[in-house]
Amino acid sequence: MTHYTAPVFAVAPMLDWTDRNCRLFHRQLSGRALLYTEMVTTAAIRFGDRERLLGFSSEEHPVALQLGGSDPAELVFAAKVGEDWGYDEINLNVGCPSDRVQSGRFGACLMLEPALVADCVAAMRSAVGVPVTVKCRIGVDDQDPEEALDRLADAVIGAGVSALWVHARKAWLKGLSPKENRDIPPLDYDRVRRLKARYPEVFIGINGGINDLDAAVDLLKTLDGVMLGRAAYQEPALLGSVDRLVYGAASDDADSFAVVERMRPHIAAHLAAGGRLSAFTRHMLGLFHKVPGARAWRRILTEGGVKEGAGLEVIDAALDALARRKAA
After folding, report:
1. Stretch(es) of the chain classified as CATH 3.20.20.70
2. Rounded to 5 degrees, what are φ and ψ at 266?
């Protein structure tokens, strides 16, 4: 993806969830959805194991790298590394409210420093050829969302940001946990729509509380992109309809059983390299959500996937349980 063309359906960056195995699985369900890495800090990219942090399969494209940081020079270094590794987009996290992120002066606390965010965006824009985007909140703590979001948007749009993804909630830096910050502050989709009306030529996408594709398609009537997080992870089968409903593809929706078959060679290669089955199966637990036998599928994968030496036979047993329930 070299530029943003609406509509875009994206799966949100989620720490501990959207790793390379998860993204490869999601790609079997949708050929068009934009996938995001977990947030990776600039320090991790400079000093850490880059293959572990940044390695991904060519099948995952389009895939974006989300960075955590606030030093323009360090972000330039990380963005250039990300571009060299083949990522289609570099995204700056201005939305995560965790204490660890705040102590590093990145994430949602950057809503308080729009000029610094603009400097970061401008520096990365000048250093890489792929789109540079920002994911933010509508404000933090006692900020007025009207003023806070406009100030941030004005700054980064002036710096040449390619897209702005807005989690349509405030973040409370003190008093709420990251989990509570995903649920307790009220959603305000209209605030994001007002931003889009103010900047009709700029790509504005929305995130937060979008639980199904009907809601996503409805939001795309007034906004350029929708980003689903937990709903896409916990009920991944909904991704199987994205290409048709969002992108107008003439293809059939992805069949969950066929997706399992397409995953087999990837899982087998992972096991052959010494990996554990659970590295994949933990992301596949919700694949048959609401299907008869889904509980048995989850139980067998959960219990069997973590055992030493577990292999594809665990997936076969889980599929058998589904088939038995279907035949009953």
Report:
1. 8-245
2. -65, -45
- Sign of the CA dihedral 189, 192, 197, 200? negative
Residue 110 and residue 309: Cα distance in Å, rounded?
45
Does 256-327 carry CATH code 1.20.120.1460? yes
d(CA 124, CA 132): 7
User: What does the block give as tokens for 175?
Assistant: 């008093």
Active-site residue, from 22, 96, 109, 120: 96
Is-contact 242 33, C-beta < 8 A? yes
Q: How far is residue 253's CA from residue 318's CA, in Å, rounded to a whole number?
A: 22
| pLDDT tens-digit series, residues 56-87 | 999 999 999 999 999 999 999 999 999 999 99
The structure's pTM equals 0.95
Say whether 96 is catalytic: yes
**Long-range pairs for 28-31 at CB < 8 Å and ≥24 separation?**
28/254, 28/259, 28/262, 28/263, 29/236, 29/237, 29/239, 29/240, 29/242, 29/254, 29/259, 30/239, 30/240, 30/242, 30/243, 30/254, 31/243, 31/249
CATH topology of domain 8-245: TIM Barrel (3.20.20)
